């Protein structure tokens, strides 16, 4: 919460509510519905919650069923009290800024409990009645803080695009399922791309490449006849010819993978050059 105090003057200007988002979640962000919900209850803050199957793994939110007013937070409950967790999407009225001191502060542990005790914090369920029917039918949420979860979140996002904006997905020879390609990317002949692939700006995919369930970021180059599954290829990386990468291999920025190598679950830090195969998952520093 400390950075909110640094921006206090900017956020308070005009007296309008403002959104705050966690950077490691992906969903179809319900900004309009959340702003409407916030105006209706008149409290100081609103957060979005989502249901989980195993609430004992999380800190859960206990709220009134009819109003959404948050009563308390319970960390990893041993008995069932709620199956709703904080989804990392908030809208606050400027009054919250008076609660936050200019020091390292946890909004979840220090600010939210006090607001809940005063009846100033409300929860809107991601697929609850506050949202429109279309959203409730296909809404999604995912914590993407880990590479394997990032790839799962990517798949969910692509499926959401298929449901709402199929015209944004890429189609063409060799494309399988949901694929998103920046218009500036170049894909060679006889490639098979997909399902569940995103290819960023300026990426070059040479002839005969197979890519599925991967993200390839801006400026990367995948050389001919390589095979990638469940990988994240960082900015400006170069993957050599006849390379096989799988099992949530992650390449940091500007990594070079030489020809004819096998990478199995490798996590490679930026600006490294890989000259030998990585047959077992490990971090390369």
Q: How many structural domains?
A: 2
Strand order of the largest sheet: 9-12-15-18-21-24-26
Mean pLDDT: 92
The CATH first-level class of the largest domain comes to Mainly Beta
Radius of gyration equals 22 Å
What is the CATH third-level topology name of the largest domain? UDP N-Acetylglucosamine Acyltransferase, domain 1
Classification by helices and strands: alpha/beta
β-strand number: 26
From the N-terminal CA to the C-terminal CA, the straight-line distance is 32 Å
Helix content: 10-25%
Assigned CATH architecture of the largest domain: 3 Solenoid
Our count of helices gives 6
**Oligomerization:** single chain
Task: Report the CATH superfamily of the largest domain.
Answer: Hexapeptide repeat proteins
Broad shape: elongated
- Ranges where pLDDT stays below 50 over 5 or more residues in a row are 128-138
Classify the beta-strand content into a percent band. 25-35%
| Largest sheet report | 7 strands, parallel
Topology summary:
Elements lengths: L1 H5 L1 H5 L5 E4 L3 E3 L3 H11 L3 E7 L7 E5 L6 E6 L8 E9 L14 H11 L3 E5 L7 H6 L2 E3 L3 H18 L14 E3 L4 E2 L4 E2 L3 E3 L4 E2 L4 E3 L1 E3 L4 E2 L4 E3 L1 E3 L4 E2 L4 E3 L2 E3 L4 E2 L4 E3 L1 E3 L4 E2 L7 E3 L1
Write up this protein.
The chain is of the alpha/beta class and 285 residues long. It has 2 domains: 3-125, Alpha-Beta Complex (Spore Coat Polysaccharide Biosynthesis Protein SpsA, Chain A), CATH 3.90.550.10; 147-283, Hexapeptide repeat proteins (UDP N-Acetylglucosamine Acyltransferase, domain 1). 20% of the residues lie in helices and 31% in strands. It is built from 6 helices and 26 strands. The strands form 6 sheets. Strands 9-12-15-18-21-24-26 form a 7-stranded parallel beta sheet, covered by helices on one side. It has a 6-stranded parallel beta sheet with strand order 10-13-16-19-22-25, with no helix packed on it. A hairpin with a 6-residue loop joins strand 4 (59-63) and strand 5 (70-75). The longest helix has 18 residues, at 147-164. The radius of gyration is 22 Å and the shape is elongated.
């Amino acid at each position: 919460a400390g950075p909110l105090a640094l921006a206090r003057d900017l956020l308070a200007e005009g007296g309008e509510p403002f959104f705050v988002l966690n950077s490691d979640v992906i969903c179809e962000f319900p900004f309009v519905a959340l702003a409407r919900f916030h105006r209706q209850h008149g409290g100081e803050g609103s957060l979005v919650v989502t249901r989980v199957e195993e609430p004992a793994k999380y800190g859960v939110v206990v709220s009134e069923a009819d109003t959404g007013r948050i009563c308390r937070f319970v960390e990893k409950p041993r008995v069932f009290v709620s199956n709703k967790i904080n989804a990392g999407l908030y809208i606050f009225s400027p009054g919250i800024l008076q609660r936050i001191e200019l020091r390292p502060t946890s909004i979840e542990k220090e600010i939210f409990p006090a607001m809940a005790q005063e009846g100033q914090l409300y929860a809107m369920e991601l697929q609850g009645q506050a949202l429109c029917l279309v959203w409730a039918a296909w809404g999604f949420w995912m914590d993407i803080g880990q590479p394997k979860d990032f790839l799962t979140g990517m798949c969910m996002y692509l499926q959401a695009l298929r449901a709402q904006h199929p015209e944004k997905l890429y189609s063409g020879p060799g494309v399988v399922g949901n694929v998103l390609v920046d218009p500036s990317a170049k894909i060679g002949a006889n490639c098979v791309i997909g399902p569940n692939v995103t290819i960023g700006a300026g990426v070059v995919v040479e002839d005969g490449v197979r890519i599925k369930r991967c993200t390839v970021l801006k400026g990367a180059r995948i050389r001919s006849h390589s095979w990638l599954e469940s990988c994240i290829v960082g900015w400006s990386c170069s993957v050599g010819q006849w390379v096989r990468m799988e099992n949530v291999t992650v390449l940091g920025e500007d990594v070079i993978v030489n020809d004819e190598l096998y990478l199995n679950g490798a996590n490679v830090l930026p600006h490294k050059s890989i000259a030998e195969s990585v047959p077992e998952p490990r971090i390369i520093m």
